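Slide 14.
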Amino acid sequence: MTKLIQIPETRETGPCDGGRDRPRIVGPHDGGPPEDLVGARRNRLVEVVIPVYNEEHVLAESVHRLNTYLTMNFPYSFRITIADNASLDGTWTVARELAQELVHVRAVHLDRKGRGRALRHVWSISDADVVSYMDVDLSTDLDAFLPLVAPLISGHSDLAIGTRLSRGSAVVRGPKREFISRSYNLLLHTILAARFSDAQCGFKAARTEIVQALLPTVEDEEWFFDTELLLLAERNGLRIHEVPVDWVDDPDSRVDVVKTARDDLRGMIRVGRRMLSGAFRAPVGGRNRPAGPVALPSGMARQLPSFVVIGIISTIAQLLLYLVLRTALSPLVANALSLLFTTVANTAANRRFTFGVTGPANAFRQQLEAGLTFLLGLLLSTGGLALLHALDPHASRGVELAALVGANGVATLVRFLLLRAWVFHPRRLGRSDATSSTTTREESQ
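Slide 15: predicted structure.
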């Protein structure tokens, strides 16, 4: 028999909740699987979380469909948890009714928004062997769910994600969302050295003991939560399994693209800063963690933080200048002018603060040589804007900015390598090997 249970007043595990969320749970009296499933625990328990916000119109149909599919096709014990994060419509009423009707379903209500916050709460208290989540629209073909969780149950992998960007995937979605998704993942690969292919697919799973060890280090509570979790897992040497999925876009998606892109950029800056400081670690044993600290090439430990800060400031300046020029000019002209001005300023700042070059000697030559990165950035950003407007002639300013950020991410990586290996190489600056060696020794101390 199901009943409404009030959770005792305990502090949330999330860093931003401060103990203010008091989730309400509807489902089996102990929050675990129904009694008739206890004997099946030898088959392992998999918990599927469906985070929802104002999804009254689609929730019942999706949960019934998922419950029927898992009952008929899934070889392990399962529990479906509807995580309602502060819905304003009748979502919580529908969730309670489903929990009372279906033996495998329970419902949790939180008083604050945030998909990451909802997943954090359910996963952190789960007693399942494997935790997972999927979007309420069930855009991903459910036949991919068993391949997603099987490597986790066997112990072969630590986390698993569905990917829409592999050759084996079959994806149906609009060109604008396709462009944004690929630009976002390209930015992760070039700036944060991510190796997983698709950070945003709402179809993920993890071994419970692994994810519970990672959660205290993950700070985000909204859409960047997935990305931060995956980056942290890779940083700690954990194995991420990828499953090509068939995926159909939901035209009724509630995602605010501009706000999400802005929050994701902030999240990447924050994670990049933690990576550079060495603080992006979790108390979990990885499979491929190096035996000792990775040695950076000579001088890079000193140069990289300065270059990143200057790059962030330059990117923000270019985007603001682009918005100003865009009011009177075409997107391509506004992009070229804003990129030209910020490239000159970026080179001057890196010359002084990143590579320690002062005085007017060779300054003009170095600006010309660094201009190659301007041409690369112009080529990438112009091509990206042209492609975006070919796919969507009425693309918004926010989508244009997302395209520019993606192009600038690739150009920034090449820029750092070019400045370091050619424009400001110690031999071209007349610096002796002894000076470089001294710098290296100082950095290693």
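Speaker note: Confidence is low (pLDDT under 50) at residues 1-20, 29-42, 289-295, 433-445.
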